[in-house]
Amino acid sequence: MFNYSNNGITVSSILDSRRLTKDNLYPIKIRVTYQRIRKYYATGKYMTVEEWEKLPGTKSKKMQSIRLDIQNSFDIIKAGVQKLIHEDGFSFEALNSHLNKSTSDTLNAGFKIKIQTLMENEQVGTHLFYKDAFRSVEHFGGENISYASVTADWLKRYEKHMLKLGRAYTTIGMYCRAIRCVLNDAKRAGIIKENQYPFGHGKYEIPTAKGRKLALTLQQIKSVVNYSDGTEATEKYRDLWFFSYLCNGINFADMLTLKYSNIRNNEICFLRTKTARTSKLKKEVCAVLTPEMKAIIEKWGNKSTKPDDYIFGFLTGKENLFEEKDRIKSVTKSCNKRLSKIGEILGIERLSTYTARHSYATVLKRSGANIAYISESLGHNDLKTTENYLASFEKEERVKNASFLTNFGD
Question: What spatial distance separates the first Cα and last Cα of the chain, rounded to whole Å?
Answer without folding.
Answer: 90
